[in-house]
Records
---
Amino acid sequence: MKKIFAANWKLFKSPKETREFFAQWSEAFKGSKNEVVFFPSAMSLEAASTSIQKINAGYDLSFGVQNAYFQAQGAFTGENSAAVVKELGGKYVLIGHSERRQLFAEKNELLADKVAFTQGLGLVPMLCIGETLQEREAGQTKSVLKTQLTAGLAKADKVKTLVVAYEPVWAIGTGKVATPEQVQETHKDVFEILSTLGFTAPILYGGSVKPDNAAGLIQIPHVDGFLVGGASLEVPSFQKICSAI
Ligand code: PGA
């Protein structure tokens, strides 16, 4: 199966920096049998869209938005529209990243509406799940993930495409990557929970993925790709990660 390598740029890179990145990227990265996805900040989406359209990629190259509301338009000050992402040629909507859950208090019920709305538009939701350190230490990882998946996918269409990103909260931006054993065990659990709920979806790992750990992690069963933050901001490091297999 094709792996998915996704870059989460968070609130980094202006439109100008985005164009500069893609100019370098198209020189440095010539191809892959895998899929490469970029999640720029919303204000740099059009720059990313235009840049990506100019790249004559011989591989699957796409982009998406880091968050979008569950309505296409209306009186929702400050929100992003997935319909606009679609108009720009985007493919994905990242939903429920731990920063959205923790800093912006997004709850599973809201995420379920976003997943359903995204699928309804014909875009692909990438639903993020993950436990905190406290939850892992209390032995609650599997039950937390089960709750996040059950509630987050409550309104999802089982036939439409879906991607899940498992990101232990304690590994995001901390340099503390989960051990191969932890990744293996947890991805197996996520796969089983998804199967029980009736879903089949690629499961990405995220949390301090770097060029030096990517090759090992991508070999683990049920690791179908990565969601990469810090190491996706520079062309050389993200290119190395995308070449891990
Ligand atoms: P990180 O971020 O790779 O910097 O840990 C991952 C993410 O937040 O998606």
Note: The mean pLDDT is 96.
---
Amino acid sequence: MRHIAIIGSGPAGYYTAEAAQKKYGDGVTIDIIDRMPVPFGLIRTGVAPDHQSIKAVSRRYEKTALGDNVHFAGNVNVGNDVSIAELQNLYDAVILATGAPDDRPLEIEGSDLPGVIGSAAFVGWYNGHPDYKDLDLPLDGKSVAIIGNGNVALDVARILAKTEKEFAGSDIVAHALDWLSHSNVETITLLGRRGPHQIAMTPKELGELGQLERAQPVVEAHDFPDESADALLEPGMRKSVTHLRDFLAREAELADKPVKINFDFFAMPVAIEGNGKVEKLVVEKTKLDADMRSVGTGEHYELDCSMVISCIGYRTPPIEGVPYEHGRGRFANDEGRILPGLYCVGWARRGPTGTIGTNKPDGFAIIEAVAEDIAAGANKEGRTGLNRLLASRGVEAVSFADWKKIEEAEIANARDGAPREKFTNVAEMIAVRES
Ligand code: NAP
């Protein structure tokens, strides 16, 4: 029997578990350990609440989770409740699928002012992540600046722009829906340090901005290269750029929408200023060099805003004793191998890129690596040893059956038309399990 521990119950974790099930059948036990008492990681607290069809993939993970040889141990903090070295003693393979939940730091002057918020916090807040439920957001301002031109920046802009009605059928948490319905935001500025041909926004997500009830996406013609240059783009990017050109073509049609989502291209934030809170963003205009990198032109402008949301990518938090690549914000690894018996997968391996589906081949590849390295199990204790260790430390792990009780209560608590009202507090989740 082989014993595998997977740390992290998001897409990378569950695709890896599925791959191990398929590879070994009954010849494996798979324990999925998570810091949160609830599973599915990014699907629950990263994917936007108005993208329910993307969240539906959790049904596939549930099928894996309900397999006889798969066990969920939630509410267990690796590095705190149990160390990597201890897990390595108990399991033939320990696979880190911890994702990239921390923000890349925005290293400009003023980024510590109240009102500067990282996307991990903002996205966690509207998705009910217990770490961010009490995020203090200023309600008074009319303008928000969003730094970055990726899909997270798009999610954040869309959530800020939607009307309460447009959240029907979503699982946005009550505190966020309440804040948004009282917010006075009229201008949302998306700042890209490069141009329309360098965005990291996918077509479906960008197209949604053109369909909002009260918001108009605004682009400037002078930022675009000649239309003939679009033909050289790869098909997905070409579609995204076509959406941007369409926003320009529909300018008159959309003009009466009161909320503006301005695309400021070739715009590099260099400082945030304000008296005890964010009041303005100082931006340097940029141009592209021969390698398509942005370089400052020396020309600056200022943007009045009460909130700056930085959406410039994520990092994997280091774990004591695990080699780490600080520059890239992920574990040091060779195709997922970190040390003998220790592996990483998904964003913890390759950084925060790709779609949820990208984690599937990743998970299957790491199990092939495990199979190459570990021909047979080495009589390790696996789950029995973990349970004994946790019990000796008074750590109460949450099982998948416990999660199903929590889920049932969340469904019962849903407002009309919503799939669930999430618990945002770990103690409340655990109390439901015990009820
Ligand atoms: P991302 O795709 O890497 O985009 C990061 C953006 O931040 C880029 O535009 C980048 O510009 C910019 N940036 C980086 N450092 C900067 C700095 N110091 N100053 C100014 N701008 C800076 O990251 P993400 O948006 O966080 O998304 C992470 C992953 O999740 C992506 O794979 C994304 O597609 C995925 N995701 C998918 C969905 C969806 O499919 N619905 C939703 C959300 C996220 P440069 O290009 O110039 O570096």
Note: The mean pLDDT is 96.
---
Amino acid sequence: MARLYVTILVSVLMATTNCLADGWTTIRNGSVWLDTNGDTVQAHAPGFLHYGGRWYMIGEDRSDSWHPDVNMYSSDDLVHWRFETKIIRNGVTVPELGTRRFIERAKLMHNPRTGKFVVWCHWEGPRYAASEAACFSADSICGPYRLEWSGRPLGVKSRDCNVFVDNDGEAYFVSTTEENTNIGLFRLADDYLSAESHVCLMPGLRREAPVIVRHDNLYYMLSSACTGWAPNQCMLSVSKRLDRGWSQLEKIGDDKAFRTQAAAVIEIKGTKKTTYLYIGDRWMDPDLPSSKIIIFPIEFKDGKCIFEYRDEFRINFATGEVE
Ligand code: GAL
């Protein structure tokens, strides 16, 4: 009888943790995620930071569709998400947030030189006319976060955005600039709190939702066309240098990016291999608050990228293997 109880207990534990005894975690796509309190995870257009052995995810809380606070969650396995806190709160963190201003695409970095946690985001107003960015910082990962700066970086109109930290610790803000016309690459100061230089990439190509990854000394950039919440073809561009030499856009995946728009690519460094996971938003599924976060493996090799949707896959966070 005791053995039966133990067997049942182990099965229940395995089912609830989703993590098999052999170290494999199953990730399933298509549903709204629930956090460890049973509440809907609200972290759209998420940004990720692996810190202290855990994954931290920040993103737009779209429960009140158009005025998102920025929520932070943490997880060991990208399946079980603990709600940590609202790191940016309408009307509180900055008084004008929630009325004349809203935030999109908040992304998180840690600066090893200053020890600070730094958030860069899109900082907007009515009809996306402001075209600004903002930077927040905190001494601890969960905050409190203070506004450091907001405006057009180096005077350049800036909308959809992301961040990229290179192997040498240099950080970049990358965004869709000048009325969704170009991609702007802004090198950040050593403290990550301001932009120091700007180069215009992909002039006139009208790309947004940029994500940059470095693999084997090549930089890969994913991006979408500008069609609002409607999904479109994901495209890849590759370069040996961040500031120039980006290749012609090449289609990857199906013509709707599997009904997603890129938000991040994260690196899982295992003992056997390094695996990359693509994270995209399936917006308006069927409404803004119920938009889904979708994760699947993505591979980079010799300037090419394998971008294939998986309804479900297994990952071993220790070895880095996926199946
Ligand atoms: C998308 C953009 C989103 C959001 C949306 C609003 O093009 O990627 O972040 O701004 O438009 O319609």
Note: The chain has one domain: 2-316.
---
Amino acid sequence: MSRPLRAVLLAAGRGTRMNSDRPKVLHEIFGRPLLDYPLVSLRQLGVKRPVVVVGWGKEEVLSHLPHGVVDSVTQTPQLGTGHAVQAARRKVGGFRGDLLVWPADMILLQKETLSRLLRGHRESGAAVTVLSSFRVDPTGYGRVLRRGGRVIGIREELDADEAEKRIHEVNTGVYVFEPRALFRALEKIRPKNRKKEYYLTDTVRLIDEAGGRVEALPYAPPEEAQGINSQADLASATRILSQKNILNHQRQGVTIVSPEQTFIAPEVSIGRDTVIYPWTFIERGVRIGRKCRIGPFARIRSGSVIEDGAVIGSFVEVVRSRIGKKVLAKHLTYLGDATVGAGTNIGAGTITANYDGLQVGDKAKTGAGAVLTRGTKIGKGRVFVGVPARPLNRDRSRGSRKS
Ligand code: UD1
Ligand code: CA
């Protein structure tokens, strides 16, 4: 059974615990603001025009939202997650279908997990289904309260007693609601808690008390059910995302010498039998071929394509460049906006900066410390040396070797 699906993304909070001038949802992981991650997942789920609740740092957050594909509403002041959903009422109050509510700081949730949640919600016919997760250390999260297995509410950490704090089933903050039941319950919530906020979590108890069916499905694996509240959480989410990407590359036959010392962004492709040495950072969208050697200490930035068999060695940075097959750039090099032909040997210390399309022909070579200036084109098989770099005369070099 398929019902129409809409979503509300909560992004109005200040993110006090980040201790930062920047609104929390604009902090970045692998070059993208946090806000982008749930937006991408919502698009993958087929949600049309999600409603984003903005408030703190509104102008800045709005300027990061993609144009024409999302709706936004403003929540001022920010009085809690329940209050935030109320701000979206004029957009989704009359909607009849499944309403997904998602806090923008839960960026690790995968589409498959959400699809399962939606299926579960549709099958049980619940008025609200909470996406929950079992965490070894549940500290900081709302706990799912059950009586005889049946969900009866959610208790925030600050308001929990000792017995409740021992509950390991936590609220991810993601729910599917039947909108009428949700907005009826929201009218009844009161800020009677330690934070004096309007808690969205209270709607679970209120829907239960009003006779609606309430479910919690523990479908979120712990590594996905991690919100970002602090700088430490931001770092840990980055690591989780990178390690997940690394595992996928390993399954595809890529050798990653030391995963903990390697960062690989999403949307990167790497061919089999390529070896990635430690302390390497690979940005979004990079494509690396087969049998390459990358690192140690390499930085491959967005817009780069590294073809089969190339060697990008220690202290080499590559950005927006195409590095041909079997190119050797083994040490101390910056290759920006360059197209490097197959088999080229890039000498130590080579820098191609502020260039639009430097061209180095197949099997060409540059000497150590060579400075290639504007307009230089290195032809096939040629050798360039010096400052500024000039072609090395083959005959003379052979002659000098003889003497
Ligand atoms: C919330 C849940 C908690 C759950 C946790 C999981 C409540 C009361 N608690 O706690 O049960 O375990 O998420 O991640 O809901 N926001 C607004 N307006 C506001 C306040 C918050 O838009 O007035 C947004 C924030 O930008 C954020 C999201 O709502 O994206 C969650 O707020 P946050 O303060 O991080 O809630 P938690 O304390 O993590
Ligand atoms: Ca949070």
Note: The two ends are 86 Å apart (CA to CA).
